[in-house]
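Hey, quick one: can you model this chain's 3D structure?
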Amino acid sequence: EPDDGPTSDAGLWSDGPCDGDGPCEGDGRCGDGIDCGCGTGHDDTAEPDDTAEPDDTAEPDDTADADTDGDEALGKAAARDAAAARDIRTQRERQHDALKLALRQTLASGTLGTHRGLPVTAIVTMTLKDLEAGRGYAMTGTGSRVSIRDAIRMASHAHHYLTLFDDHGRALYLGRSKRIASADQRIVLIARDRGCSFPSCTRPATWSQAHHVTDWIDGGTTDIDSLTFGCDMHHALVGTGPGKWATTKTGAAHRYPGRTLWHPPTGMDPKRHGLINHAHHPEEVLYPPDNHNNPGDAEPRQPA
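Sure thing. Here's the predicted structure for all 304 residues.
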């Protein structure tokens, strides 16, 4: 009787005839759903009833070479059998692992291009407090949440960037002096702004572009404290003409230091009070800062 040991990865996509003993019940469609394990044994060969014909064509002078090749083939078969015996995964588990490995190698290949100046990869940010506790959630560049445990696991084979903030969340380093924001600066913006900074806008960082608080043409610098995120729609609202919005940065004494203030046109607000987006920072609404009496500070606006 054949040994019904664990099957190997070989034959994973086999479309061979069904032997009738597998879950496909012998309907002749073995491999259609890539869930049936019929047609292959633990040694990556056909079932025993498919016996191979002996090869009698070897010349007598090739006996030594044939013996060497035979020993090598037997050694490979033994190693393959030993590996298959150690593999306790089911066929579906092997398929899952193979797909995960293929996707991971594709992401790590560096051939997927860039999106808004950054390589196509997952960017996850978290607080030091949550990281040390191993609990809570981290935020991705697309606005999704992942658990701290999953984020740590993802970081085990990723490129690490360390962004330093002070107690008020202001970026301390990674400034540049050129017009186009660098990849490093975009990473800091993702960690700091998390998305478009226009009041109540919920578009994530991946939908936003780096915006100069003071326009480059007006002498603005491409330093991290002079940049903010604006989605394609709201970035176009900023300007010096009538009906245009303006942007400024809050100072160290502000209730929300280092954040971007959006000033509406005079037709909407004659005094052009600055507004802050709290949509990407719900903790500011749930746990507002203590200095409520800070002059010129507007109340948090709920996301639209």
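One thing worth noting: Residues 194-286 form one domain.
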